[in-house]
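Input sequence (195 aa), recorded before submission:
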Amino acid sequence: MKILCLLASPRPKGNSAAIAKRFCDKAESLGAQVKIYSLNRLNYRGCQGCMTCKTKLDHCVLKDDLTEVLNAVFDTDVLVLATPVYFGDITAQLKGFIDRTYSLYVPDFLTRANPSRLSPGKRLVFIQTQAQSEKMYADIYPKYELFFLFHAFKDNILIRACNVRELGDIHSRDDVFKLAEAAAEKIFQQEQASQ
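Predicted structure, token format:
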């Protein structure tokens, strides 16, 4: 099983990164191959709306650090997106990546039964941390999961940690780390059962 993990926080040892690390460590201990990118360390632009990926190419025309990441999405079985909430939404780093996944849709994606260039059956693990209570920002995951469902990701998992404001607050939340480990075990077991 291949796992691609994208850390979207500008803080490399932030709360969302710590949860992602626990998930990835558990998955590796079960035999998964894990590749991690810290989006904040990459140099890339957001989607330019040029439509070249729909008219002339089968990939994004931009050549930057995100090119390698987008190519890795094709090969992965599980995509992990780890983000804190900034101003009521995902970070700009993650939004830039998600916008660029528009290039992964086929030209006539609005009318196709399979609108994505990706092979079906991939899984999404969405890790969201926030300073506020769970009453706030519950709309973030469903909004972005919709795009990944359109890419044929299935049986997706949300790991959400609320009331973690300061750097390191997550380390007192063993409940969230247990959720991360349980998610890795569940995905690994389902992957083994499908082979």
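Checked by second reader. The chain has six helices and five strands.
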